[in-house]
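User: Hi! I'm working on a homework problem where we have to compare a predicted structure to a textbook description. Could you give me the structure for the chain below?
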Amino acid sequence: MDDIGALKQEVARLQAELAETRAVSRQYLQNVAHQLTAPLGAIKWSIEALKDERVPLSRKKALLSSVYSQATILVHLIKNFTLLSNLEADHELGQFREKPEQENILRLAINLANDFQPQAYEQGIKIVVDNDSFRKVFGSNCLLIEKNLVAQAISNILENAVKYAYQDSMINVFAASSSDHVGICIESVGIPIPEADKKQVFSRGFRGASARQKVAAGTGFGLYLASRVMTFHEGQIDLHTEGKTSRFFLLFPRKRLSREK
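Assistant: Happy to help. Predicted structure tokens:
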């Protein structure tokens, strides 16, 4: 009887787990549809306006910039959804275990910042990469990383910084180091992150009340994925806040430093 009782409990547990998984999946798919619809709609509207001969050239330039911005968001979302799907299929990131490559982290930071500049510009936000800090921390060294994964992690932080920063503010990207780690920091001034939320921001699907209030749409997967990527690289992701200033640190072990070829 004890064995039967234990079996019933296990079946009940599995049924509850399956129901929860289905609920999360439904919510995830709803989020995916909503997140993809917004940039696609904006691109369609902009293209229609571009075709209108009555629209002045100066306005068309702004529309082209908006199309680029929305396309960047779209590509970023699709990469996130792909990465999340693969994470669900392989909890240990085994499908991504390609050979790490030497990457110039300053060049990567500049390229990613440029991707988000048009989106930031629309809100009067400027993204500034501190070249000197990277030269001071890294010198002529590169990082041995899986570029696509790390690029996505940095992109996730940048996207959040743009979404939640105050208008006419500045997002600073600079190199950071400690005795054991080197990496990159993304600093922005925007809606404060409550102390109670700081412990949960890297949890799967979590979005704080203040974040939901400012930007209703969102999946809550960006920081979770960034955290998983850093764990895979034997590194860490840290959040430091001071009033309305938030700093996200992506830190790699110094053993990943290598002389640039």
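For your comparison, note the following. The longest strand covers residues 181-189. Strands lie at 101-103, 126-129, 141-145, 170-177, 181-189, 236-242, 245-253, 257-259. Good luck with the assignment!
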